[in-house]
Amino acid sequence: MRLRELGITIGDLDPGALNAITDVPGVRVGHTTIVEGDDVRTGVTVVVPPSLPAFAAPFRLNGNGEITGLQWMEESGFLTTPIALTNTHAIGAVHEALVAAAVAGDRSTWSLPVVGETWDGVLNDVNGFHVRPEHARAALESAADGAVAEGNVGGGTGMICHGFKGGIGTASRIVDGRTVGVLVQTNHGARRRLTVAGVPVGRIIGPERVPLPPRRGTTEGAGSIVAVVATDAPLLPHHCRALALRSMLGVGRTGGAGEHSSGDFGLALSTQPADRLEPVPPERLDPLFYAVIEATEEAIVNSLLAAETMTGRGGATVHALEAGLLKEAMGLS
After folding, report:
1. Is residue 1 part of a domain?
2. Which uninterrupted H or E stretch holds 42?
3. Looking at the 3D structure of the chain, how many domains does it have?
4. Burial class (CB in 10 A: 0-12, 13-18, 19+), 71
């Protein structure tokens, strides 16, 4: 289930054909999902641009998290590897796989991969090192255009969002003949703050209707989110940073606050070749900003609706946000 299937829309811009980051021509997404026994609930997701290097930039709302390769991205203005998302303690294994893929492809004799994380230790044995380089290689090999699997898949397998089962979500917008796509890995937010299209559904549903998951950290809302923004609009690195920043406004519209115990990051890239770029003039950037905000908000809600209730490590259970309950909370049932 996705948000628009419920008759609920975010904003006034139209989505692309798939309402996914893969609406941006040439962008591919791959997942490896690892579910083993009672305690392993994790995986890897990759976003692969059509060509590299690509103009790109990050933005950090709150830094209790990690994305490798950002120093070089900020210094150079380029993304030089696919973007991978996984759990906190699997960064090293995924990083190794991306370096090996770069070297094997003769793209470089050195590589500084971009690997982001969110912590899945409520549902997953995060200290068991279950993600290995071959899982990241499999995600790269499976990367494809077309519809993107959401919810309990890839890096989002064991994640929690606003007190519900979270994971991977995606959405897109078309503006001025260009496409903006967003993919999120959601593992953040407090139940009471969840807002959908301006409706405080988290407070309406409350913990009485759907039990809260086991507490993680000392702050309600502890966790992280990574938003990957891709567009075929011709943008320079400082424009990309502006789009990455606006993805965090989408996080805020759904109730995320960049809590002290959360890592909240945006990454934005332009797929237009740098050697023949005629950048979007400043007066035409605002529609792209609105597109990013809307697509990020919708991608977060899609991650919730696509996810399924999961029981994992130590018997911990995290409940899904059921479509009928969301409609009821929004006064649509």
Report:
1. no
2. strand 40-48
3. 1
4. exposed
For residues 126, 132, 136, 139, the Cα torsion angle rounded to the nearest 10 degrees is -80
Choice among 172, 232, 264, 303 that is catalytic: 264
23 a catalytic residue: no
Judge whether 142 counts as a catalytic residue: no
Catalytic residue among 247, 262, 270, 303: 262
Which of 111, 172, 224, 303 is catalytic? The answer is 224
Alpha-carbon distance 292 to 246, whole Å? 6
Side-chain-facing half-sphere of 222: CA atoms under 13 Å? 13
In a domain, 68, yes or no: yes
Respond yes or no: is residue 264 known to be catalytic: yes
Contacts of 116 by beta carbon, 8 Å cutoff, 6+ apart = 65, 66, 67, 68, 83, 84, 85, 86, 185, 226, 265, 267
Q: Indicate whether 6 belongs to any domain.
A: no
- Domain hosting 228: range is 11-327
- Mean pLDDT in each 10-residue stretch from start to end of the chain (333 residues)? 96 98 99 98 99 97 97 97 98 97 78 97 98 98 98 98 98 97 98 97 96 81 94 96 98 96 96 83 94 98 98 97 97 86
Q: What is the CATH number of the domain that holds 74?
A: 3.60.70.12
